[in-house]
Amino acid sequence: MDTKDHLHRQLIVVFEERGSGDLKIAGIEVYGRGLTIAEVHSIDQDLPPVIDDPETFFPAFFHADLVLDFLRHPDLVQHLVTVCSSKGIPVISSGKHIAGAITPPTCCSLGKRSECGAYAERFGVPEYKLVLKEERIVSIEADRGAPCGATWQVIPRIIGQKADEAVPLMGREIQYLCAIDPSAFDPVSGKSMLHHAGEVHMASLEKAISRARRRL
Q: Domain range spanning residue 131?
């Protein structure tokens, strides 16, 4: 890697429990641009219902431009967000409701937030570009999408489909690939986050189809 390029790359630190972020880490490494996962801190031991000393589970020092939170235990999440806030490091805690963190409902719902740098330029609400011929999708590219990689992985299943049929197909295929627990429901909205991920991708595909139709 060019030294100058390395100096300008966004440094990301990941915190996870028992491999909870593995799929997304792999996707980021394949599809990411302008960023580097500098460290992955995995907490793999059994945890009590209440953690009185969460600081003992974290490194004494870490440096990052952005932190990705894939922790599950609420006491660990709270401590991580508190530490990141004190350091001035933005932290993304998808699917959670915690003050001080960036909390999109799903990883593929993240908007283009400037404080998230290169990560948010590449990962979040999907952005598709496609070409239609006689109402069939003949080519499609994704400039932005889910860090798990599902946005890109589903493309071969969409090419060749009729435009109107491709939209519901996109929703189904994303749900097959999505790493979200099917039983996970958002306590505020009452919606399944798995379905939400499918709907986000469907809406993005519909926008791309509309743009392609205007170009015909």
A: 127-215
How confident is residue 189, by pLDDT bands cut at 50, 70 and 90?
low
Residue 10 pLDDT greater than 70, yes or no: yes
- The token pair at 185 is 């429901």
The pairing of strands 136-144 and 127-133 is: antiparallel
Strand partners, 16: 42, 70
Q: How many domains does the chain have?
A: 2
Dihedral sign for Cα atoms in the order 121, 181, 204, 130? positive
pTM score, whole prediction: 0.92
CA–CA distances in Å: residue 116 to residues 75, 119, 166, 212: 24, 6, 31, 30
CA 88 to chain centre: 21
- Average pLDDT in the 156-172 region? 97
66, 94, 122 — which closes off a domain?
122
Which residue do the tokens 């499918």 mark?
198
